[in-house]
């Protein structure tokens, strides 16, 4: 099966998992109705599900006969919940103050700031319940998974990325920008791949290779995002000074995208598995995606 077929197949599974999760939440008498509505609004507003898909493909790469897809369920839900929390909070007036997300009113425009703040808080906290409650994952692997997630998205990860982003001004240099993109974007993409490899119980050497692969894929993902966000007429917003395009111009930004994509492909070739083709396709998909 090629990437498009696997994506189609997995999306059905993932949407089923998410619907079941939200249905169970709806039955919980302690769950505030407006909170669940706000969280559901953003969870179901048309995201690509890139991070769960990456986790699925890596899991399949390393899975052996005793692995079951159900082992991945809570982790995939957690990834999309982390991503959703970060988008809800990022759009708030005290952060990026964006009224629109994915072509729709952003969460706080529909539910008000206080509820959106709490919707993000709830999602982030529920992630750790889901990870601790994941079925059929050995205790040691579960602890490694929880440590990985907390490290990559917490104060030494994504949250500091957001702080560096907020503090960035015209004095910013390329190294600073690379750090922001690493912490804000590549960290969660890397976590998706490495976490799935941990759940599939892959060997230490392959864990290292997958970590390097997904770091480069994550950087390539963000650079592609900068290219998609860039205005052809150069009339970018002030905040666009925090973009590869601003620093390097179009041609060198494309070179950087090619460089990270090539490094991702090279790392994948060092992985001790035959069926890496679909992940190679994912690297190429990022190059041509339009959203
Ligand atoms: C801790 C509040 C807080 C924020 C963390 C991740 C983040 C910082 C902010 C989100 C906004 C942003 C520009 C993130 C960069 C990562 C990125 C490219 C997000 C878009 O991801 P896609 O393309 O989105 O996967 P969809 O809509 O497909 O889910």
General description of the model:
The protein has 291 residues and is an all-alpha fold. 72% of the residues lie in helices and 1% in strands. It has 12 helices and 2 strands; from the N terminus they run H-H-H-H-E-E-H-H-H-H-H-H-H-H. The protein has helices spanning 3-27, 33-43, 50-62, 73-91, 107-111, 113-133, 139-153, 158-167, 174-199, 204-229, 244-269, 277-288; strands spanning 100-101, 104-105. A two-stranded antiparallel ribbon has the order 1-2. The longest helix is centred in the middle third of the chain and has 26 residues, at 174-199. It is globular and about 50 Å long. The structure holds geranylgeranyl diphosphate. Geranylgeranyl diphosphate (GRG) binds next to helix 4, helix 8, helix 9 and helix 10. Geranylgeranyl diphosphate (GRG) binds at residues 47-48, 50, 83, 86-87, 89-90, 102, 158-159, 161-162, 184-185, 222, 225.
Terminal CA distance reads 23 Å
Hetero compounds: geranylgeranyl diphosphate
Number of strands: 2
- Measured as a percent range, the helix fraction is over 70%
Series of secondary-structure elements, N-terminal to C-terminal: HHHHEEHHHHHHHH
